[in-house]
Every structure is written in structure tokens, then in C-alpha cells.
Design goal:
The protein is mostly helical. It is 67% helix and 0% strand. Helix 5 runs parallel beside helix 7 and helix 6 packs antiparallel against helix 7. The radius of gyration is 18 Å and the shape is globular.
Amino acid sequence: MGSVSALSTAFRAVSAIGENAYIWIAILLFVLATRRRGTARLVIAVLATVLAAQLATDLLKILVARPRPYLVMSDIIRYGRLEPTFSFPSAHASRSFASAAVLSAGLKRWRPLWYAIAISIALSRIVLGVHFPTDVIFGALLGMGLGWALVRLIKVEDVAGEQKRPARDAGK
């Protein structure tokens, strides 16, 4: 029983850092502190995509009105807090994958870390019993789609200086 308690505590902590995009805001503050060229555009893109993901998720939750797993399945143990909204789609997943998509365009070297954070936050929602897997999968796809769209719209570039190498002169 102790291992279940430790696991649920760990996943509650992971879920908490995804609440209201706290982890992503902390990352943005660090990015701003670097003062590299293009960081303002990257920060604006992440904030815009988080806002877009939240608005889209809120609208879909109202339209779909899917109850939380612990409300409809007696064998689901809820380890997280009671959630006041509907289940579909997962806002944690949509905000996290939206942020990861934009940060992956702006800080390419760290792409595996951004997606590892997003995956951890998304999985925590299933483990805690507050989302069905489809809520998280759709939330992740929604967030990534919005993130990729905003990367193109705002023209986010790699701020770490990992520019494309110039093509070799074919005549030499």
C-alpha cells in the first residue's frame, strides 16, 4: 500500500506543476532571463498557445459534457482532487502539449525535455483517475495542433542559435 501512496503522491505533484501551466510559465521566465534574440516572440507564442488551448478546451468541455471517470465507473479510485469541470478534453494535456510544441520550435535542443514534461503531466491525469485516456489523447492532439499553428503564424525560430547550415557552394 505504501508504494501506491508514494506513486499517487508523485503523480499528484506532476499534475500540480501542470495546473494553470505553472511549469511552462516558470520555463518562460527562465527563457526571458537569457535575453537571447527571439525570446520575446517565443514567450508570446507560448502564452498565446496556452490561452488558445485553454479556451478551446473549455468550449469542448461544455459541448461534450463528458463526466469524470470516477463519477461513472465505480472501480476508478480518484487520487486527485474533485474536479469541478467535465472530463473531455484534458486541459492539462492540451496546455502542456501546446507549450511543448512551441518550445520545441524555439528551443530545439531541449525538445525531448519539453515532450517528457508534457507526457508526464498528461499521464498523471489518467493515473489520478480524473481523465479517461481519450480525454488526454485528444487534449494532447489539440494542444500540439494549436502549438504548431501558432509557431507558423508567429514565425517562431530557434532562439538557441541552432540555425540551418548554409548550403555548400555547388561550383567548388
